Amino acid sequence: MEDFEAFGALRDPLRRRLYEYVAAQDHPVSRNEAAEAAGVARTLAAFHLDRLAEAGLLETESRRLTGRSGPGAGRPAKLYRRSPEDRALSLPPRDYRTAAEVLAETAEAAGLDEELRRAARRRGRALRGAEPVGGLEAVRAVLARRGYEPRQEEGGTVRMRNCPFHALSEQFPPLVCGMNLALLEGLLEGAEGLRVRMDARPGWCCTVVEESGPSKNNED
């Protein structure tokens, strides 16, 4: 029922727009910033942001934006960021997460890491299709469609704010992060001048895509 209520909180167009704005940022968002982005009054933005927080879609924190403390530093601002909790809606209910956890636990216990990586690389190739992905812009589009929320940094590195396998990677990091890397290797195989590598950072996907020399195909 909680997931129904969470999705119901997004029925309002303005509330959904505010949620999408906060979710797209790589920093906690103040009420003023959200209001300006949505083109509405601060009080109206605050109302909808708090409803999203009550529904569990956003998390909040309080912090002085001036960086100062003590008398005269001003009141702490209420800041919002996307909740890391997964939400899913299925009618009738399905429990794919439990099945994935059982399979991951079994693969880890049996030492099937390499077999899993080979399977993930093959799946990545199948998802890519016959033609290699060309260029960083095309790569970002492919990653966005897969739910990775790519962000390009200076120097041509693409980091991903979202890991589609977040819940599993928290429980089985070496197994699932290795699988994720292999999946992306297959997906981007043949993309000239691009490579995928591990570069784990808190709150981000464990992999990055970056410009490099000619790519080396992986043969399985």
UniProtKB/TrEMBL annotation:
Region feature Disordered, mapped onto this chain: 63-91
Gene3D superfamilies: Winged helix-like DNA-binding domain superfamily/Winged helix DNA-binding domain
InterPro entries, per the entry: ArsR-like_HTH (IPR011991), WH-like_DNA-bd_sf (IPR036388), WH_DNA-bd_sf (IPR036390)
Comp. bias (Basic and acidic residues): 82-91
Name recorded for this polypeptide: Helix-turn-helix domain-containing protein
Organism: Actinomadura miaoliensis
